[in-house]
Amino acid sequence: MLDTGKTQRRSRTSHAQVVDELGRAIVAGTYPVGTILPGDVELAQRFKVSRTVLRETMKTLAAKGMIVAKARVGTRVTEKSQWNMFDSEVIAWHFDDDVTEEFLLQLYDIRLAVEPFAAGLAAERATSDEIALLTGLAGEMAAPGHTTESLALADLQFHLAIADAAHNPFMHTLGSLIEAALVGMFRISTPPSQNGFATISETHMRIVDAISASDVQAARAAMEAVIVEGRDHVHEAYAGMAKVSA
Question: Are residues 132 and 231 in the same domain?
Answer without folding.
Answer: yes
